[in-house]
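Q: How do we represent a protein-ligand complex in a form that can be generated token by token?
A: Start from the inputs.
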Amino acid sequence: SSYECIITAVHGDGPRKTALITLNRPKALNALSDPLFDELGEALLAFDADDSIGCIVLTGSERAFAAGADIPTLAQHDFQSAVRTDMITRNWEHILRVKKPVIAAVAGFALGGGCELAMMCDFIIAADTAKFGQPEVKLGVTPGAGGTQRLPRAVGKAKAMDLLLTARMMDATEAERSGLVSRVVPADKLLEETLAAAEAINGFSAPALQLIKELVNRSFESGLKEGVTSERRVFHAVFGTDDQREGMDAFLNKRPPVFKHG
Ligand code: HXC
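Then emit the structure tokens for the protein with hexanoyl-coenzyme A bound:
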């Protein structure tokens, strides 16, 4: 690939494959810069548009998923330049536009913007070496990409306040216990386990996956009654897909389904 801050690869041998995006600024513990986000946004949207890709895995290195926004860059800004350039956050929303499942595979540090980026993924699989935190307050600033919004929704107010106000890090066990990550695996199995989860997803119906993702995300933005009503109508609507017939016919005939993603 022609990228400088990320590495892209494709894994799997089924009809739908897994896109693997690796953050790659090792000397800065994958600190998140505008050039990195330009590349990440471009790669995410390209994979999302590619019919041969079923889902996307985002990972970092053994030492760090990402140690936050790039501090030397932040240090150059004042209020006016931050607003004018939409500092650091200008491309962050790209990841939220991706319709396919995005899994974060986190080893080592996921701090500040790194933790926020992981939280923008659909779920997080953590290595037992993972450490999560929002240490912005140590730099005299606030989080700027979801730390005060997604973290409390994930772990509750008490733990979010604790992490945000004390700047402490939490390890993978605490992160799993509090609901920030879906599973913890040994560090040397992180990629294998995450790619296996991705492979399972790749075999399922793309429209069903997309609608599930949309409904879960909507549950954080709407009331229960509205969410449940939308869910029921979407459930009815998927009976218009070939994949519904295939999935149920396969079950009734005791054979594996072959989804055509329509
Ligand atoms: C730029 C960074 C960096 C960062 C680490 N490095 N974090 N460079 N931006 N966020 C660099 C270090 O300067 C160092 O470069 C190299 O990576 C290795 O880091 P060390 O500090 O030597 O490693 P270690 O002692 O193991 O400590 C690791 C660490 C520490 C605990 C992760 O680096 C750290 O506290 N980093 C900052 C974490 C942080 O505050 N993140 C929040 C940023 S604010 P050299 O060249 O010296 O070897 C933020 C706001 C987001 O994220 C807002 C969203 C818009």
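Residues 28-29, 31, 67-72, 88-89, 109, 111-113, 135-136, 139, 143-145 surround hexanoyl-coenzyme A (CB under 6 Å). The chain has a mean pLDDT of 96.
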